[in-house]
Amino acid sequence: MKIIAVANQKGGVGKTTTTLSLSAALAEKGVRVLLVDVDPQGNASSALGASGEKGSLYHALIGEKPAAEMVYSTRIENLWTIPATLDLAGAEVEVARMEGHLTQLRRVLSPLKDLGLYDYLFLDCPPSLGILMSNALSAADEILVPIQCEYYALEGLGLLMQVTEQIRASGANPDLSLCGLLMTMYDGRTNLNPAVVKEVRNHFQEVVFDTLIPRTVRFAEAPSHGRTIIEHDPAGQGAEAYRALAGEFLERQKKGVAFVSGATAHHS
Ligand SMILES: Nc1ncnc2c1ncn2[C@@H]1O[C@H](COP(=O)(O)OP(=O)(O)OP(=O)(O)O)[C@@H](O)[C@H]1O
Ligand SMILES: [Mg+2]
């Protein structure tokens, strides 16, 4: 089981949409995915219909219950979730007081690895550089960064790379690597979006996924129907884009392509 953190401290860039849609697209291909919601807003949990009645990530994180008992099955075959509820916001303070507070999530999730029930575990991160995000980065094997196709797309990315480097250097997670950068909400009708994509590709080269996620209103509709885009508009370009991403993701995983920060260093 590999752990992938979907992270960018910038808000509203498509982290949750990507976590949900990529997970659903992988599940559709028969890959077994556990989506762990690390955002107290709980948007991914609501989309999957997991309300946390038997407990949530909060209870696992503070050590009250084993993570394995907090897993909920979803209506999607091959997709499970550990939901987040608002009390997770309070866990920031509780976890901060613990010894080894950076690696608490890693410790809590590690028994799941031995179960052999999931191929990938995706962490939907909150839009901040707090304790929850640091814990997610410490628990992850790789980080996938959604970037919105807009003028200031790269703003803040340096900071994220710096934090990633700190996590690595602190010894909390020396092997953390970058799975890729994903350009989201692409609108080819403007001149700006293609220019931004070109700039990001020039800068980060093959770290950027070939797959571009188009901007379509279908994404905004899907969560209000409590569904992923794969269910809401299965034949639409949004669903197709995330299926293509799932293919590209698996291809990279098979080849062992990952990167150190934004640099284009391969390792397998
Ligand atoms: N490709 C897209 N096209 C159009 N709208 C999109 C697309 N991707 C996401 N959205 C919409 O943009 C908004 C923000 O997306 P999302 O919640 O996935 O971002 P986020 O990075 O998880 O936000 P937060 O930082 O608050 O957690 C949502 O309303 C979502 O429906
Ligand atoms: Mg989100």
From TrEMBL:
<dbReference type="Pfam" id="PF13614">
    <property type="entry name" value="AAA_31"/>
</dbReference>
<dbReference type="InterPro" id="IPR050678">
    <property type="entry name" value="DNA_Partitioning_ATPase"/>
</dbReference>
<feature type="domain" description="AAA">
    <location>
        <begin position="1"/>
        <end position="177"/>
    </location>
</feature>
<dbReference type="InterPro" id="IPR027417">
    <property type="entry name" value="P-loop_NTPase"/>
</dbReference>
<dbReference type="InterPro" id="IPR025669">
    <property type="entry name" value="AAA_dom"/>
</dbReference>
<protein>
    <submittedName>
        <fullName>Chromosome partitioning protein</fullName>
    </submittedName>
</protein>
